[in-house]
Write a structure and sequence with these properties.
With 182 residues, the protein is mainly alpha-helical. 73% of the residues lie in helices and 0% in strands. The chain is built from six helices and no strands. The termini are far apart.
Length: 182
Amino acid sequence: MLELTSDWFDIKGDLQFTFDIIASLILFFLIFHFQKQGYRNKEKQSKIGLQVKRFIKRKKLIAVILVPFFFILALNTLVQWFSEVSFSSNTLPSFETINNLFFDDFFTVLILVDVILLLISFFYTDKFHKIIRNSGFVVSTILIRLSFGVSGYISTILIVVAVLFGLLIIIIHNLYEKEQFT
């Protein structure tokens, strides 16, 4: 709960709120740069080989399968939550663990799918920089998943580190490709 007093930095809840706001700005900045690094221009996309097109097709198929799966997962989570918050129960679930309702399972599935995609990518490339990039994205997803198991500052730090790690992976990958093709 926020308390608007002159002792803002002495109150743990207010300090956590300030930390979360700063972390949100940092995440927005990191995600902006991640998107910028991940952008491929039209010229580069036209040079995509047949094997990469097959890999992209498989990734799209997995994404199409995941959409209804995540919808069912969310619906199941909602039903379970409603059953815990029934009128016969006098206790409400803790709001501190509200993220654990859906996102624990969501990120567990994402990690499994990321690992499957990583394994599938081995059939399409043996270039180590591509494999390291894909592995780095799995590590980022694992760090985000780990953040749900802790609370407070550590949770926020893990999320920022996950995005920063992903950004550094893609920057290094892009530098490698630039050096390799010039």
